[in-house]
Amino acid sequence: MSESIVPPEVRPKPAVPAKPPHVAAPSPTAPHGPSGLGGGVGVDRVPGLGHSGGGSTLLGYIGIDTIIEQMRKKTMKAGFDFNIMIVGHSGLGKSTLVNTLFKSQVSRWSSGWGSEHKIPKTVEIKAVSHVIEEGGVKMKLTVIDTPGFGDQINNENCWDPISKYINEQYEKFLKEEVNIARKKRIPDTRVHCCLYFISPTGHSLRQLDIEFMKHLSRVVNIIPVIAKSDTMTLDEKNEFKHRVRKELETHGIEYYPQNEFDDDMEDKNENDKIRETMPFAVVGSDKEFQVNGKRVLGRKTAWGVVEVENPNHCEFALLRDFLIRSHLQDLKEVTHNIHYETYRARRLNDNGDV
Which residue stretches belong to region Disordered (predicted)? Predict the structure, then answer.
């Protein structure tokens, strides 16, 4: 006697948990209780939870992908830290660009500095922290400024205070890490990114630029940018960018994102496009102007307004997208897994005592 076989009903994952219309009683040979995650299949029964009549309730979808939501909630509660260093000689618009990047007054001028303060005769390190909140997400942003860099007649070894500061933050993190009773969440003051501002000369890099990036690229993620790029024509800008890339390659200077840190082909293809665009030719401004009925950030000239966020005018939007939307977390991971680990291994190998 033939028996027709009815294929099991395939139900999509419910968007809203609902009690199934019918739950068949288990057969004597069938295993009792839930069958596990099953690669993301909904679990209908949870032992110990149900009605008084012995029936169980459907609590909701359970799958491996719910881990992402758990991580998101914990991260939202903890918040984020991001530490960015800006380096370049005075007058290149470093503070203005950072204010424009984060749409907040995070520069040193808004934190107790004024026009009466003179640029120091030696390189100083000024770290200013702000908490930025958007959409329920809090980020502690620390901007490390380096007033006095490159402004002297003799700039020999002027990068030493900057290198010392970066290593001091690694040392501080290492000491917290090796403590027997260490903190649950170690404060992270390590420099995750260094924006290096190149003067828009249109010719070539200065020797100071080459020496700085050669020494510091080993300990921090350097992102070179061409400041005030609206002072060059389009042809001059493209030629200068090409010349800068060739000089960096000639001197063996690696800048972020480094080729050897690409995880897979998708990352490589995305980062190759970024590397072809760098150094970003940017313009910063915190002033608004009326253009075609819209308020835009820009710099007003005799022939019109240079719109900061217009990709046809400059590459500020590309830098912001790269720095905040797509690579902020990767900058932190490369800092921890590469630069900090290199420092940590060297320190422990030197004397084994921290």
Answer: 1-48
